[in-house]
Amino acid sequence: xxxxxxxxxxxxxxxxxxxxxxxxxxxxxxxxxxxxxxxxxxxxxxxxxxxxxxxxxxxxxxxxxxxxxxxxxxxxxxxxxxxxxxxxxxxxxxxxxxxxxxxxxxxxxxxxxxxxxxxxxxxxxxxxxxxxxxxxxxxxxxxxxxxxxxxxxxxxxxxxxxxxxxxxxxxxxxxxxxxxxxxxxxxxxxxxxxxxxxxxxxxxxxxxxxxxxxxxxxxxxxxxxxxxxxxxxxxxxxxxxxxxxxxxxxxxxxxxxxxxxxxxxxxxxxxxxxxxxxxxx
Length: 281
Hints:
Layout: H1 2-7, E1 11-13, H2 17-31, E2 39-40, H3 44-47, E3 51-53, E4 56-58, E5 66-68, E6 71-74, E7 89-92, H4 98-106, H5 112-122, H6 129-139, H7 147-155, H8 159-170, H9 173-185, E8 188-191, E9 194-198, H10 204-215, E10 220-227, E11 230-236, H11 245-253, E12 257-260, E13 264-269, H12 273-280
Parallel strand pairs: 1-2, 1-4, 3-5, 4-6, 6-7, 9-10
Antiparallel strand pairs: 8-9, 10-11, 11-13, 12-13
């Protein structure tokens, strides 16, 4: 009953694949109760000025922005990162994607191959043909990825149409792959086996491709972009013996917006880049 009531106020969701897919599943579930929720995918820069009050949040957590009196679906950080005063209810689980978390919690009868593909994309462990298509579709143009359209297709269980949309988007992937090769070529060594590089607006897809390739040969990879007056750092590792969460926790103590899980996450800051790099070192 509580979830149904909060859904009437809308959904605020992270805009990556598992967030978009999870939002579609939430909308589908809401439809069965005659509820047509609004939904929104804020950009990373928008988050710092956003307040999520009495809504359903998908991976938008209090370490990123103000979240109060809301229901939070998250598989990254967990309720220990929240405060009692925020009065949030957490639906949390250590699963590979928030899409799986939502599907399990709501008992939505969705084809497992789609959930598995989303799991693989979110964990950067691309194996199935479907996950390859989804990965390329998203990375081809992260900024203009048709999140609203895809969430609606998931909500309506139009998966054949969704696959057609993704295949069309995936055809543009090769352009980003060429840009990624340039980003790799221009990367710097911070420490042995720790690489970082800079990317420009519009190269978000290439950024992720470059990170995955660099992570194959390095312990930690840092991608640095800038939007308006905010630096956006994406940090990733494929090493099972490295846990990035203490880094994000320390960044929050220093006043940065930061969060993530063991192998991937991000930091946002309006400070000059030299100060950020000094902190990382």
